[in-house]
Amino acid sequence: MNFPIDKIRNDFPILHQKVYNHPLIYFDNAASTQKPEAVINAITNYYRQDNCNIHRGVHYLSQKATEAYENTRKAVQTFINAPSSPEIIFTKGTTESINLIASSFGKKYIKEGDEIVISAIEHHSNFVPWQVLCQEKKAVLKFIPVTPGGELDMDGFRRMVNEKTKLISIAHVSNVLGSVFPLKEIIKQAHQSGIPVMVDGAQAVSHLQVDMQDLDCDFYCFSGHKMYAPMGIGVLYGKEKWLDEMPPYQTGGEMIKEVFFDHSTYNELPFKFEAGTPNVEGVYGLHAAMNYIQELGLLNIAAYEDELLKYATRKLMAIGEMRIIGTAKNKTSIVSFLVGNIHPYDTGTILDKLGIAVRTGHHCAMPLMELFKIPGTVRASFALYNTFDEIDVMAGAIIKIKQMFA
Ligand code: PLP
Predict the structure, then answer these.
(1) How high does pLDDT run on average in the chain?
(2) Were both Cys, which of 208, 237, 275, 356 would link to 252 (CB 3.0–4.6 Å)?
């Protein structure tokens, strides 16, 4: 495969350092990705050349920053093939995007006795907001069952949806197992009963080409920092028909049209949902990150990362006494595992001392750990700058760890 890995690695300055005297191997990309020079430069150039509050000034800097901000909105629209740019709302990240929907959609549409369907595999960010909403509204939260391999039990899903179901909220890709869920099937089935679907795309956008018009979901959320952009910037895509009807999530400056002593009227989309001074530097960084991804091509990235995942799975299984948690047919970029009876925390700590950054624990999915009856996993998650050699080093380190504990 002709993937320009040497050039790519040179684009990421942080990768070229030693950790405890070992070259850094960064396999914690599902938590947050590293940033290429292009993104770092976009942020510093913003502060060197354009820094100003947006939408409010008549002067040059304000107009320049506003134009860049709004151009990024259009770039996001193109990146996810959304029908229109006012359907793109900038948020702090996936968590805030989901909370926005839970709060605003929940206020307007959820009543006592209604049902919300999520899966048993969700990140806490796509779990707790619905749990709290259901508690507040005396609604019922239901969980699509999960197979032992980490796929959704689609028969269970079909049995679960009924006339009381008011919303389905589901991850595109599991942050623990890497399973890619059959969204099109879920969305088609939900829409046949007029039920809207929200998608948590936090683990998808940097690995898969996502297309709002093809998926036809009602809401889609993601975070910049998991796609080579800065922290504190994210996106909520929502169909205009919902966003228009939904009440504001936060109130204050920018989200209003007119304010009187006794009432206020609200701004049009997307501004109705962007109260206060936004994260302008984050938006500059997000634009640079999307450009970076698009220059390489998401299909090329996906193909390369798929090879990495298959290679890592083969290498780990060859060690023996390894348990891969999550064996879905359709997976991307994440391998979760346990080494014999060694606690995942011990494996992760020793890997760290050998320069290898992995994540250990419940990965913000405690109900899933309870379901699988495991204390946690070791999770290696890959990005476009990882290499087959790095996987070899991790496999060698795990063999050493096994020997130490034997
Ligand atoms: N959803 C999934 C599937 C995730 O993996 C994460 C982060 O790990 C989140 C939501 C929360 O993202 P953030 O912390 O960027 O809001």
Answers:
(1) 97
(2) 275
Q: Is 40-294 in CATH node 3.40.640.10?
A: yes
The predicted structure's pLDDT at residue 2: 83
Q: What residues line ligand 1, using a CB cutoff of 6 Å?
A: 30, 93-95, 123, 125-126, 171, 175, 200, 202-203, 223
Task: Locate the ligand 1 atom nearest the alpha carbon of residue 364 and give its number.
Answer: 8
CATH number of 5-30+298-405: 3.90.1150.10
Closest ligand 1 atom to residue 200 Cα is: 1
Give the tokens for residue 38. Answer: 């292009």
Closest protein CA for atom 8 of ligand 1: 31
* CA 117 to centroid of ligand 1, rounded, Å: 19
Shortest CA distance to 382 belongs to which of 285, 322, 301? 301
pLDDT, tens only, 354-399: 999 999 999 999 999 999 999 999 999 999 999 999 999 999 999 9
CB 384 within 8 A of CB 301: yes
Specify the residue with its C-alpha closest to ligand 1, atom 4.
202
Do the domains 40-294 and 5-30+298-405 match in fold?
no
Q: Could you give the residue numbers annotated as active site?
A: 364
Give the mutation target among 28, 118, 122, 175 for probing the ligand 1 site: most ligand atoms within 8 A of CB. Answer: 175
> Closest Cα partner for 98 from 199, 212, 225, 206?
199
| In the chain, domain spans | 5-30+298-405, 40-294
Rounded CA-CA distance 289/8 in Å is 13
Atom from ligand 1 closest to the CA of residue 97: 16
**CA–CA dist 165, 74 (Å, integer):** 33
